[in-house]
Predict the 3D structure of the following.
Amino acid sequence: MSMDLLIRTEARLIVLRTLEEQPDGRLNSELLRVNLEAFGITKSRDWVHDELNWLQEMGAVRVVEAGSVRVATLTAKGSDHVNRRVVIEGVKRPSREL
């Protein structure tokens, strides 16, 4: 697996986990970009938009445009992946709780 793909699969899981932590399951792409930086993944907002589009194609999030950002909302399928009930290929699997 290439380093680019490793970063993408990790970033997708971080995005889903971050959305799962929100009371309403939503965040905008700029806040998600800043959160990814906290995990050492420094990418542009356009890169985050591409990943949100991919996650939307997989059914893990819904995305709406809001000016220059996009707002992602976690779906049941995205939540199920975070909670290890389903596997979305292309998203890193969450580790088991100890």
Notes: The radius of gyration is 12 Å.
